[in-house]
Design brief:
Blueprint: E1 2-6, E2 15-19, E3 29-38, H1 41-48, E4 64-72, E5 84-88, E6 100-104, E7 108-110, H2 124-137, E8 145-149, H3 154-165, E9 169-174, H4 179-185, E10 189-192, H5 198-201, E11 206-211, H6 217-223, E12 227-235, E13 251-254, H7 261-272, E14 282-285, H8 289-297, E15 305-308
Helix pairs in contact: 2-3
Length: 310
Amino acid sequence: MQAVQFHEVGGPEVLHYGDIEQPTPALGQVRIRVAASAFNAADNGMRAGFLPIPVQLPHVPGYDVSGTIDALGEGVEGLSVGDAVIGFLPMELDGGAAEYVVAPTEAVVAAPTTIPLADAAALPSVALTAWQALFDDGGLESGQRVLIVGAGGVVGKYAIRLAKRAGVHVIATASPRSEAAVRAAGADEVVDHTASDLLGAVSAPVDVLLNLAPIDPEQFEALVGLVHDGGAVVSTTAWMPTPGDEARQVRAATVFVLPNRDRLSTLVSLVDEGSLTVEVTRRIPLAELPALHAEAAAGRMAGKVIVLPA
């Protein structure tokens, strides 16, 4: 089968497109004929070797996947050949940047039925990240206030929709380019971070500060003052410390997204009922994945890209 993989960590040049052996599902696994995988920033970090995730080499990237089950390992129950599924695959194992991938049954759920199967690969990890950041790490509850810094990205828009659905007042930062999309996602207040001082623009304390942007550490520290005593600061920027305030019991949490089959099934239901929108900005063939990594490494990529094996 055709796949993209790397045998050593390094720049985008370590990625190679070619023929590798088709995997066979083991006990408790299914094999998926891939409709699409999704590119994430962590794929870039894992390939480059600066994310602390011990991948097995050679490694096929792409831990978000959608496709159709075409083979079952022993002991598999509740799934059948022909089922359309999506999955958040174990990040240390081979991913979906291939024609076929094997996955543990606990990593996959039935795919949404209201969007194309390939596009559904864009959902799992980013939507799970937003949920975990807000409710598991942030402890956000109905009636509270959240400030989302960097809300114009894919995770930010999921976070806005999930927070609004939970009855939360959402203040979001966005550039003029993404302001309309952030408002459409449901933000109650939008602050143009290119023109406003965020410390002065937020009129009342928030219960949770969620940072999704690579902001200056000193600025991040200052923003903690916007959080209520006993609140939380949550960040997805794992390469920099998340500040808190122990004296005021403001917790600090850095998000490392975890698989959760029940939660992923709930997110699929929200897509099918129209509460969540799956955003895909580009679709590329598998052979162009190394070039996409080069774009990301150079900081020239934005939005959500899915990778099609055919």
